[in-house]
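S1.2 Input.
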Amino acid sequence: MITWQDFEKVDMRVGTIIEVKDFPEARNPAYKLKVDFGVEIGLKKSSAQITSLYEKEQLINKQVIAVVNFPPKQIGPFMSECLVMGVYQGTDIVLIQPEKEVENGTKIG
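S1.3 Output.
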């Protein structure tokens, strides 16, 4: 069990994917994403292993939920700055997104 204070430390925000590139250097198939989290947080990069369910074109302008306060993580030659969240469907990952469009940077709580 975690406390409410533990949960409050995790900064989850809504952002819009504005760029998607292939990531051929990744150990597992992945994309490099650039996500816009609005004025307060700005743009952050993320690596996402979502190639089995999503084409690059489908991801542009899609809103997602991500943890934005993890320290950057080196993934091969790429520095990931946030964790885009999803749920497992077998071995695939389905992105978590708001039901309706909201302002980029909106905090999840």
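S1.4 Remarks. DSSP finds three helices and nine strands in the chain.
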